[in-house]
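Figure 2 data, in text form.
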Amino acid sequence: MPVYTYTTLDDPFAVGATTPALGINSTGQIVGNYRNFGGTHGFLYSGGTDTAIDDPLATGVTIAFGINTSGQIVGDYNDGTTHGFPLSGGNIYTPLRACRRFCERNGRQANRRTCQGR
């Protein structure tokens, strides 16, 4: 029977029990989000260090969903509309509006991960 090691992640800036981990890569870096009085923020947990991720265009919501082996993070933010973003190098955000345009051209509404019928 395998032996598992569990680590509890509680973002130090979170209010209440609101630190879901949403993605992990092969090097053990973890991404997710937490909530506090300033809104919802993404986070990167790497090597015992917790780093907040806030898209500069966000108005209160940034969520990190996944991370690859190169450390590139994908997530979404909201500025009245939800947009996807990739983050690489720690501070380079590139909004993913192409998915939204594709969905809308095909009579669908974009959400965090995919298109939904309307």
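Caption note: The mean pLDDT is 80.
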